């Protein structure tokens, strides 16, 4: 049995939404946005398996060329979306604060 219930997808917090990662992307929405800032993205491997990249909104640490790459394998597309929503709910306050701070810097 999976650690995540296979029932309905949990409800996203206000302001979060699933959308396509770019305008003409094919397939279902795979990018999770908060106020227009991408915070997570589901990616399908060549083998057909899925993984999710989290923390996409985070900047690179000072002196580093890239932000840390946070990837989690998913047992299926649906389970990956559920897990991503649970992550967003669990870390909502921090994600909101980081997205707001990033917008103020730009």
Give a brief rundown of this model.
With 106 residues, the chain is of the alpha+beta class.
Give your account of this protein's structure.
Helices cover 26% and strands 25% of the residues. By secondary structure, it is an alpha+beta fold. The chain has one domain. 20% of the residues are buried. The mean pLDDT is 89. Residues 1-23 are annotated as: Disordered.
Succession of helices and strands: EEEEEHH
> How many independent structural domains?
1
Helix content class? 25-40%
Structural class category: alpha+beta
**Mean pLDDT level:** 89
Strand content: 15-25%
Sheet with the most strands, sense and barrel status: 5 strands, antiparallel
Q: Rounded to an integer, what's the Rg over CA atoms?
A: 14 Å
The number of distinct helices, counting runs of at least 4 residues, comes to 2
Distance between the termini: 44 Å
Principal-axes geometry comes out as globular
Strand order of the largest sheet: 1-2-3-4-5
Give a count of the beta strands, DSSP E runs of length 2 or more: 5
List unreliable stretches of 5+ residues: none
Region (Disordered): 1-23
Write the layout of secondary structure elements.
Layout lengths: L15 E4 L11 E4 L2 E8 L5 E5 L15 E5 L2 H14 L1 H14 L1
Antiparallel strand pairs: 1-2, 2-3, 3-4, 4-5
Using brief descriptors, characterize the structure shown.
alpha+beta, five-stranded antiparallel beta sheet, globular
């Amino acid at each position: 049995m999976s650690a995540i219930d296979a029932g309905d997808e949990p409800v996203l917090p206000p302001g979060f939404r699933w959308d396509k990662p770019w305008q003409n992307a094919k397939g279902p929405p795979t990018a999770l946005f908060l106020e227009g800032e991408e915070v997570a993205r589901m990616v399908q491997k060549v083998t057909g398996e899925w993984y999710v990249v989290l923390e996409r909104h985070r900047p690179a640490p000072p002196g580093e060329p890239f932000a840390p790459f946070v990837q989690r394998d998913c047992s299926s597309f649906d389970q990956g979306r559920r897990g991503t929503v649970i992550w967003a709910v669990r870390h909502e306050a921090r994600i909101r604060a980081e997205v707001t701070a990033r917008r103020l810097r730009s």
